[in-house]
TrEMBL record:
It comes from the Bacteria. The keyword Aminoacyl-tRNA synthetase does not apply. SMART domains: TPR. This is Tetratricopeptide repeat protein. TPR repeats lie at residues 50-83, 118-151, 288-321. The keyword RNA-binding does not apply. Gene3D superfamilies: Tetratricopeptide repeat domain (1.25.40.10). InterPro entries: TPR-like_helical_dom_sf, TPR_rpt, Ycf3. Signal peptide: none annotated.
Length: 353
């Protein structure tokens, strides 16, 4: 079950429709086409019933027809601005449309107006994580668990928040609990595998990786975690192959580019390292290890200006970095060294030899 379906399924009840000819949707729960058909008919008979638009929006979310769902959520809000459940519904849609800032604003507005439940705080936790605010994400997840202590999704996001601040022990514990409470939450299964790998619990990690690979064969992160597993097991060839599979599925996966780049750099494949480290640096602007490796790879391949720029970035982060300072002095001397004059007749003579 996706997160969008979670909030669809567990959100608090909206106001009930007042249209006396409203169909009983419970009888067509598993037939989304029938639901939509009945809702379309009901709305055509009663265009002032906000709950009908909200119900149709929920079905459209499940069908991933988010623009249509957004239109219906707006219609529900326009008809009943006081129902904070409709703001929550719109926040779900905006989250699915990749607009976390807008979604967060609405979710917080709903919370301030006393719309408080496990689903709202689970949504808030997810949004805060997307916006790289792990501390706030952790707080929201804990609030969700106050309403529902066994909420597998809240436990999952609490685990992600812990991982984001470097607390891998707590992250692992929460992923275990999330999987126990919500076995069908595949993202939790995947992150459990990753946490086991990073905690060097290889005996448990191996079967968990095998399991999630079967469940999510086209998930780039699964292959990335397998790559880390092999790398920590001192199997660089297998690690590189796994990372390559991860990047085939998700070329924007910067952690896979970073580890691939460092492995290739250690093998003196500087051109290969550059192609991956350039992509990794985009999300690692303060990682001296990656920046230094990229700088040295540039220098090794004769790209002195690029190398100088990267070494200067290292110094900006760590002014007393000895190697970077030495490299900058060396490159400046090389770049400012005058080009020796060579007579034309000498060049012609050399070309004739």
């Amino acid at each position: 079950m996706s997160f969008a379906l979670l909030v669809y399924a567990t959100g608090c009840n909206m106001e009930r429709g007042t249209g006396e000819r409203m169909v009983d949707l419970q009888h067509v729960t598993d037939d989304e086409d029938a639901q939509l058909s009945n809702l379309d008919a009901a709305i055509s008979r009663n265009k002032q019933d906000a709950s009908l638009y909200a119900r149709r929006a929920k079905v459209l979310i499940r069908r991933q027809e988010y623009e249509k769902a957004l239109s219906d959520a707006n219609s529900a809000i326009g008809l009943n601005e006081s129902n904070m459940g409709y703001l929550f519904l719109k926040a779900q849609v905006l989250r699915s449309l990749g607009k976390p800032n807008e979604a967060l604003k609405l979710a917080l507005q709903a919370e301030r107006n006393s719309y408080q439940n496990a689903s709202l705080y689970t949504l808030l936790s997810d949004l805060y994580l997307q916006l790289k605010q792990p501390n706030e994400a952790g707080k929201a997840a804990r609030k969700a668990l106050e309403f529902d202590p066994n909420n597998g999704y809240a436990l999952y996001f609490k685990g992600k928040a812990s991982a984001a601040i470097g607390d891998t022990t707590r992250a692992l514990a929460n992923y275990r609990l999330a999987v126990a409470e919500e076995p069908d939450l595949l993202e939790a299964q995947r992150e459990l595998a990753g946490a086991l790998v990073f905690k060097h619990q290889f005996e448990d990690a191996k079967p968990q990786l095998r399991k999630v690979k079967a469940l999510l064969p086209k998930d780039g992160l699964v292959w990335f975690y397998q790559g880390v597993y092999y790398q920590l097991q001192q199997k660089p060839d297998s690690a590189l192959w796994s990372y390559s599979q991860a990047l085939k599925l998700a070329d924007t996966l910067q952690v896979a580019h970073a580890r691939t780049g460092i492995l290739l750099y250690s093998r003196y494949d500087y051109a290969g390292a550059i192609s991956h480290l350039e992509k990794a640096i985009e999300g690692n602007q303060k990682n001296i290890k990656y920046i230094s490796a990229l700088a040295n790879a540039y220098e090794r391949t004769g790209q002195n200006l690029n190398a100088l720029e990267q070494y200067q970035r290292v110094i900006a982060l760590q002014p007393d970095h000895a190697l970077a300072n030495q490299s900058i002095n060396r490159l400046k001397a090389k770049l400012t060294r005058p080009v020796p004059f060579v007579r034309r007749d000498t060049i012609e003579y050399l070309q004739s030899r």
